[in-house]
Write a structure and sequence with these properties.
TIM Barrel, Lyase, Ornithine Decarboxylase, Chain A, domain 1, 28 strands, 3 domains
Length: about 450
Amino acid sequence: MSNAAALPVQQPDDGPLLITSASEINGSVLRDTFVQRNCSLHVRGNVLGSLTIEPGAKVVVEGSVDGKIINKGGRLVVNNKGLAACVTLDGPPEAEACGILKIDLTALVANYEALTKRTGAECAGVVKANAYGCGIDQIAGALAKSGCRTFFVSNIPEARRVRAVAPRATIYVLNGLHSGNAAAFAEINARPVINSPIEMAEWDVFVAAQQWSGEHALNIDTGLAKRGLSLEEAAAFAPRLQTLNNGVALLMSRLDHPERIARGANERQITAFHDLRRLYSGVPASLVNSSGIFLHPKAHFDVVRAGSALYGINPTPGHANPMQPVLELRTRILQVRNMAPGETIAGNPDWIAKRRTWLAVVSTGYADGYPRPGIGARGKLQAVIGGHRCPVAGSPSTDLLAIDVTDLPDDAAARYGELVTLIGAGIGIDDLAAGADTTGCEILSRLGSRFHRVYFAV
C-alpha cells in the first residue's frame, strides 16, 4: 500500500467518508465509511461508525469496528488490536520496508508510572542513544505528556530534540561539555553533566563571560565506572556551594551492579555517596537507574533515572519481568528453501544441515541490528512463526536471516510473504539478548532505520 494517500484523522461532524482510491488513515475513523469498488483502505485505529465495502474492495482495520458492517463482496481484515490512534509513522513505507517495528506508547507510559510508584523520589526519563534506538522524539513526547519533568540525553543534538517536545523540561546532557560547545547549552537551556575538573573550568569561564546563570550536574565516580570526578575531586569542589549562583543543580553517580538486589551488594557505594552528599547540603542527588529503583529506598535519594525498564527490558534479572512489553518487531518471509543433509548457507559456512531441512529466509539482517548468536548454551537465537518458536539457522547476513521451520506443525505458517516475529509475543527483548549473549539495551540501540515504524497509543 505504498502508493496510498494518507488521509487526516476523521472527525464525527464531517459527514460520511467516501473512499475512492487506495487510502490510509493514521488514527480512528469516527463516522460512517463507504469503500468503493476495487479501492483499498488501511485504518491504523478504530472504525467507530458503520463500514460499507463494495465488491473487490479491501479494508484493513488495525483496531476494531464498532458500527454495522455491510460487506457487499470485498475483503475485510480486522486485527482487533484496540488502537485508539496511531500517533505517528516513521521510516520507509510498510510495503517497502525490511520489517515492521511497532512501539506501544501506552505500555511505555504504564512502565513509567509503575516505576514512579516504587519510589518517593522524582522519576526522570533516560532517553539517551535516541531513546535506546526507539525514537527520542516520540518517546520523550509521550513521557512529557505523562508528567516526566526531567530527562537525561547523550548529547546536545538529542537535547534539542527533547526540548522541541518538552519545552519546560529539565534536560541533563550525560556526555558533558565538549570544548567550544558551551553556547549550545545556553541556547536550549540544557545542563551539562560535568565529569572532570577540565570541563568544570571551561564551564566556569563560559558562565562568567556570558553572565549566564546556567546550572549543571556533577558526576562522581563512586565505584569502577572510570568516568566522573573522583571522591577527592568532588570533595574539593564542595566549597563552591558557598558562592552565589554556584550552579550545582544535581549530584549524581551510578552503581556498578544495580541489578544485584541481594542485600549488601551495593552498600559501599551507597554509603560513600551518602557521605559525600553531606558536603553538598541542599543539592538534589541521584544514584540509581532502572534496576536500582528495585533496591532499598535509601539508594533512591532525590531523583531516580528510569532507562531500560521503560522500554520493557527486565530490571530484575532472574526474577519475573515487572515491566510491560513495548516493542514488536516483525519481518517478512522472502523465500522457503529445501536443504539437503550436509548443505550450508552461502556466507554462513558454520551452519550445516544435519537432516532434510526447510529454511525460511526473512528480510532482516545485521544491517538492521539483528545480532549474531552467542557462544555456549545461552547462544540460541529463535523467532516466532505461527505461534511457535523456531531456531535461527547460523548467523544473519547483511540483509537476510535464515530460520529453521522444519518442525512447524503447520507448513502454511511459513509461506512466502508471511510475517515472522523477531521481538514480541512469544519472544521478548531479553530472550533475544540471552540468545546473543548481550544485553537488551544493546539489542534496542542497534535497531536500524530501515524498519517501518508505527508509534501507537491504546
